[in-house]
């Protein structure tokens, strides 16, 4: 009985003493939101510094879970980096991948302009709301848009743009 109590006490102390790093807000148990704006690679490195990775949305359940946490924490009016990257070098076929695993995006949540009749294809750079077109050789990363105008759907964004970001903590 004493052994069980000691394990319980250590577990409770560890859980209660865990504190998110400065500039991060907990989004449920699985995500942390950075209130600091960084470019994509800096955001990826910041997540990795704490043993995390940029968030992924590999299926509708993950998209809905993340959306619920964003809305519950009232941060739905900004755009965020998540872990998608457009791989466009000459040695590999151009495609969207999750940077952490190298897996192709099999599930997508692209934003399509309301006037567009085209549906986005994961092998091409999707329609973006950016005022200037992006050159095909630029670094393109995955931005999760705000929920006010874009319902949290994705667009391609230059990786050098500074945005808030969401890390997956588990």
Automatic annotation (TrEMBL):
Gene3D superfamilies: Mannose-Binding Protein A, subunit A (3.10.100.10). Residues 31-168 form the C-type lectin domain. Transmembrane segments: none annotated. The gene is LOC115882953. Keywords: Signal. It comes from Sitophilus oryzae. This is Uncharacterized protein LOC115882953 isoform X1. The keyword Nucleotide-binding does not apply. SMART domains: CLECT. It holds the Pfam family Lectin_C. It comes from the Eukaryota. PROSITE patterns: C_TYPE_LECTIN_2. Residues 1-17 form the signal peptide.
């Amino acid at each position: 009985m004493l052994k069980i109590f000691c394990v319980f006490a250590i577990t409770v102390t560890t859980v209660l003493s865990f504190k998110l790093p400065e500039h991060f807000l907990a989004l449920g148990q699985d995500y942390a939101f950075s209130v600091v704006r960084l470019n994509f690679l800096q955001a990826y490195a910041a997540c990795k510094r704490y043993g995390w990775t940029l968030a992924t949305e590999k299926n509708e359940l993950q998209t809905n879970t993340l959306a619920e946490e964003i809305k519950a924490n009232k941060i739905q009016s900004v755009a965020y980096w998540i872990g998608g990257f457009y791989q466009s070098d000459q040695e590999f076929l151009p495609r969207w991948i999750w940077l952490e695993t190298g897996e192709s995006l099999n599930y997508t949540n692209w934003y399509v302009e309301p006037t567009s009749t085209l549906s986005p294809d994961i092998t091409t750079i999707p329609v973006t709301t950016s005022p200037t077109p992006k050159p095909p050789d630029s670094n393109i990363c995955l931005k999760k848009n705000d929920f006010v105008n874009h319902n949290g759907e994705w667009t391609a964004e230059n990786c050098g743009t500074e945005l808030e970001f969401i890390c997956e903590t588990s």
